[in-house]
Amino acid sequence: MQVGGIGFGLVFPGVAQAPQEVWRPQEVRPLPGGLNRVPLFHSNSPELVFTEGILLSTFPPQGMRHPRAHLHYPLRGEFTVFLHHLADAVGAQDDRTFYLGLLLGNRGTRPATVWVHQAASFLTRPDASFVALPPLLPNPLGWVYSGPGSRLTDFLLRGGRQRVVPPSLTIPPGQERVLLNQPIPTRAVGVTRNARSVVLRLFADRPVYAASLGLFATIAADGSEAPPSLTRWQQLLRQGDLAGPRDLAPTPLDAPPGAFRYGRVAGVALGTRWQATLTDPGRPTLGIPAPGGAISYGISLLPRGRMGTGQDQTALMQVRYPDTAYRTHGNYVVHYSLTLPLENRQQGKRRVQVGLESPLKTDVPEGGLRFRQPPDQLIFFRGTVRVRYGDDRGLPRVKDSHLVLRRGQVAEPLVTMNLAPGERRLVQVSLLYPPDATPPQMLTLWTEPLVGNEAEGFHHKGSKRQGT
């Protein structure tokens, strides 16, 4: 088998290895920059829905039968909606098609218009089934994906826009309108459980309220199904309670060490984009590491997984339900846009690589990163990463790669470049954090050793430096 990626590249044909923990001494840095302050309507709890009900509502509680289901948070200007829910015909004991709706309301005295800048929605079946893929595949056209989260974020990264919703929606004063009304089919696609993921990038010229809701299809007299009407959605908004079954409540962030549950998110967070330029302190460029060395920056760092940097990248919740996550652990669909102005300050020509990896999670400094060789079977990242850079001929390149990273897996090189002494090279890395990924990951810059094999620079845990 092959243990690929930055710092390894060793081949053991036909040999089944027992997992072994390895340590790479290197520098680990917090990620510069920070999240913007664009609201994110994040509806992901309960993920698995058996009953009709309210998934997330920012409407005012006044006049509602179940005030606790309404968080009273108006949205104005730019905001993003993220929905991800599963329907289960067996758990619900109902084989009618389950519908996912988004209702927008205007409590003002003048009409409110909401424009749709970007829209995407995919089902697991038939749109994006989970399939086994290699760790790294070129993905120039977006045809490589595994699961709805992988396909959704790839589509958005390319600026795609589906027609699942109208280009704009005007809401009269004191009324509501349905923006999204999409099925999560089960029986019709030959499964008992299915999921839908949705992202909408919106702009409202006046304050509006939003509610994600779940209803079964309306059954006509002839037995045929029809989507829920506006009236049914409005009745659910005013009369309905929270959908169930409820997910397990999260562990308080200040709880002592021990068993910990992050919980699923249902609320409004602040932050949809993380933009940064990665440089050395006090300098306009990022010096490449010494031969055999690496520098890593955290992606989606979170409490108890800050990788020794002390940095928590998760977005703060503005409103949330008491039994849901305290923060947006995972930063789902957040767009990371990172610029690396590389410079070779060394005497000779150097070969450098940039990659994304999934080291073993830690919260304390360890003088480097730990991996497993071979990595675990658990997949921690599925998605497309885009790299813009200048190649060795001075030509601009755009390289889209689909990554499948398992727990403890070292970086698969996204780009490899040869930098002459004093040369500068601009590299831009862009990704939307996929909804089914497990944080954290690390963006790593690595310089190949001058001599020796590619395993140089790794230590087996508890031993001295190893060669081959």
Describe the structure.
By secondary structure, this protein is mainly β. The protein is built from 3 helices and 31 strands. The protein starts with a strand and ends in an 8-residue tail after the last strand.
Compact overview of the structure:
The protein has helices at residues 89-92, 148-157, 230-239, and strands at residues 2-3, 10-11, 20-25, 27-29, 34-35, 39-43, 48-49, 53-57, 75-88, 98-106, 112-123, 136-138, 168-171, 175-184, 193-216, 218-219, 225-226, 266-270, 273-277, 286-287, 294-299, 317-320, 335-343, 350-358, 368-373, 379-390, 396-406, 409-419, 424-432, 441-447, 459-460.
Shape: elongated
| Computed Rg | 24 Å
Helix content: under 10%
Low-confidence segments, given as residue ranges, are: 1-5, 7-14, 453-468
* Helical segment count: 3
Distance between the termini: 17 Å
How many β-strand runs? Answer: 31
Task: Give me the secondary-structure category.
Answer: mainly beta
* Largest sheet entry: 11 strands, mixed
Beta percentage is 35-45%
Mean pLDDT rating: 93
Features:
8-stranded mixed sheet; 44% strand; disordered C terminus; elongated; disordered N terminus; mainly beta; 468 residues
Produce the secondary structure layout.
Layout (H helix, E strand, L loop, with lengths): L1 E2 L6 E2 L8 E6 L1 E3 L4 E2 L3 E5 L4 E2 L3 E5 L17 E14 H4 L5 E9 L5 E12 L12 E3 L9 H10 L10 E4 L3 E10 L8 E24 L1 E2 L5 E2 L3 H10 L26 E5 L2 E5 L8 E2 L6 E6 L17 E4 L14 E9 L6 E9 L9 E6 L5 E12 L5 E11 L2 E11 L4 E9 L8 E7 L11 E2 L8
Parallel strand pairs: 4-21, 6-9, 7-9, 19-23, 20-23
Antiparallel strand pairs: 1-2, 3-25, 3-31, 5-19, 6-18, 8-15, 9-15, 10-14, 10-15, 11-13, 11-15, 12-27, 16-17, 18-22, 21-30, 23-29, 24-28, 24-30, 26-27, 26-29
